[in-house]
Amino acid sequence: MHISLDGFVAGPNGEMDWIKVDQEIFDYVGQRIGEGDTALYGRVTFEMMESYWPTAGDKPGATKHDIEHSKWYSNVRKVVLSRTMDPDSYRGTNTTIISNNLSDHINELKQTAGEDILLFGSPTATHALMEQNLIDGYWLFVNPIVLGEGIPLYKNIRQKTRLKLLSTRLFNCGVVELSYVAE
Hints:
Layout: E1 2-4, E2 8-10, H1 23-33, E3 36-42, H2 43-56, H3 64-75, E4 77-81, E5 95-98, H4 102-112, E6 116-119, H5 123-131, E7 137-143, E8 151-152, E9 163-170, E10 176-182
Parallel strand pairs: 1-7, 3-4, 3-6, 4-5
Antiparallel strand pairs: 2-8, 7-10, 9-10
């Protein structure tokens, strides 16, 4: 997840135009997400992804990143946290909707998933998972900007979660990747 230096994942109206990405980050993320077989989204992020990635790699002028990520997106198992989407409309696809019993469903998913479960964006879903202590690790891209206001990454945290730093990486554009696992 991209985050500002002062802890925001989006501007006050959901703006993400401050996020720095370049080919170096795309290549790194592409390699890392290849290790995951399940993508977890909130409804808003899923709808945004679904409107672009299924055909992004087929468009004229598609970049290397578009082609690779489109292929990955088409093959990865998608899990969407949503109280408004109809789970029956996704039967027979590689998309599952979780609308209730979040803790039970996520713990079951953790038991059955073969590779990493990667949460993409989705601040509301992230907050719900944090509230129930269901996040095992954090993969953060700290952008060199102070927003001052916006949608915070950490919201309604009621318990301490000790983390162990696994790795850091500095990208040429000034973004710093921090990877933590819960202890």
